[in-house]
């Protein structure tokens, strides 16, 4: 038994003994509703037990966030590709590490959503003034409402399956800036349709977007151009990262192999194991793969091929800065 395994088992044991009954009931209620169309999460799936354990363990650790509904979906996608213990540490890393900062989106009152809305609106104005003005006329509240939908599940409820995990790989590569740019693109990419819609039309459009056919090549071309940063888009939210003891929990852990791993030239392991601070330059030769549309349906093909792999494990590394 590794040190990492003992730590996770101890966290889970305490979580089952000490977590508030209300939170336990909420998690129990939400787990069966996650990824219901995926074969791994059918009725009485063994993955439901692992998913419950992951989210419960994290809820016990993070008293400020505890549990929020979208967390189940994020953890479930990790669980499609990783074993339970590894998925837990991966989820905790996305929540707590400075590069990803997912934790802040689940804080009570959603203050980070307000900050994200300001940045996205500024970027939309830079890219398309008419669309920006249309959003203002509709009411800025609609932007925050939709951003909650986007960020809570890391786009799972919004993006079609042939785009979703590719966006996740980009998020792992670039960090939180990917959330900013993808949220911006979700508006500008559909600007012609959105300009014709009312408040209710906006909501309905994004509710149905997961089933829409999207020009994948054009989507990733436009996203790649954002990272090229030729228009001076706003990159950072007005939220300072203030680490505490909880945030140091994952500092000594790294993922040995990748999560999505689309092809031999590019895999998420290169991102997660990168020690160079400027990883976008370190792996610039992989970016053509990162933004390509080579996978027709990664949601099924990747999860099916990687979910039961024995190659995924957490390794203890005191020098890891990822």
UniProtKB/TrEMBL annotation:
Annotated Gene3D superfamilies: putative rabgap domain of human tbc1 domain family member 14 like domains, Ypt/Rab-GAP domain of gyp1p, domain 3
Q: Which domain of life is it from?
A: Eukaryota
Mind telling me which SMART domains this protein's record contains? Answer: TBC
GO MF, one annotated term: small GTPase binding
TM ranges are: 135-155, 170-189
Report keywords, A-Z: Membrane, Transmembrane, Transmembrane helix
Tell me which InterPro entries the record gives: Rab-GAP-TBC_dom, Rab-GAP_TBC_sf, Rab_GAP_TBC_domain
Q: Which residues form the Rab-GAP TBC domain?
A: 1-175
Q: Which PANTHER family match?
A: GTPASE ACTIVATING PROTEIN AND CENTROSOME-ASSOCIATED, ISOFORM B, RAB GTPASE-ACTIVATING PROTEIN 1-LIKE
State what protein this is by name: Rab-GAP TBC domain-containing protein
Organism, as annotated: Intoshia linei
């Amino acid at each position: 038994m590794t040190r990492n395994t003992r730590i996770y088992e101890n966290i889970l044991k305490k979580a089952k003994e000490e977590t508030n009954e209300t939170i336990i009931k909420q998690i129990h209620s939400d787990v069966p509703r996650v990824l219901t169309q995926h074969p791994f999460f059918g009725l009485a799936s063994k993955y439901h037990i692992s998913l419950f354990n992951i989210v419960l363990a994290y809820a016990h650790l993070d008293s400020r966030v505890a549990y929020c509904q979208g967390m189940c979906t994020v953890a479930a996608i990790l669980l499609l590709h990783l074993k339970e213990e590894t998925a837990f540490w991966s989820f905790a890393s996305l929540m707590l590490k400075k590069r990803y900062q997912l934790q802040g989106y689940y804080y009570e009152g959603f203050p980070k959503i307000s900050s994200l809305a300001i940045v996205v609106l500024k970027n939309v104005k830079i890219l398309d003034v008419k669309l920006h003005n249309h959003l203002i006329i509709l009411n800025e509240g609609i932007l925050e409402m939709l951003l909650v939908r986007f960020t809570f599940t890391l786009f799972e409820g919004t993006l079609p399956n042939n785009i979703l995990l590719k966006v996740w790989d980009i998020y792992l590569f670039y960090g939180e800036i990917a959330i900013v740019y993808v949220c911006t693109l979700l508006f500008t990419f559909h600007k012609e349709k959105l300009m014709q819609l009312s408040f209710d039309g906006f909501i309905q459009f994004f509710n149905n977007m997961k089933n829409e056919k999207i020009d994948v090549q054009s989507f990733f071309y436009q996203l790649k151009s954002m990272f090229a940063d030729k228009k001076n888009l706003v990159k950072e939210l007005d939220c300072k990262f203030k680490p505490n003891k909880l945030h140091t929990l994952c500092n000594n852990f790294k993922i040995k192999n990748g999560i999505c791993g689309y092809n031999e030239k590019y895999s998420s392991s290169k991102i997660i194991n990168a020690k160079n601070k400027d990883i976008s330059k370190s792996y610039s030769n992989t970016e053509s793969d990162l933004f390509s549309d080579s996978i027709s349906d990664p949601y099924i093909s990747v999860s099916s091929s990687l979910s039961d792999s024995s190659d995924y494990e957490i390794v203890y590394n005191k020098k890891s800065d990822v």
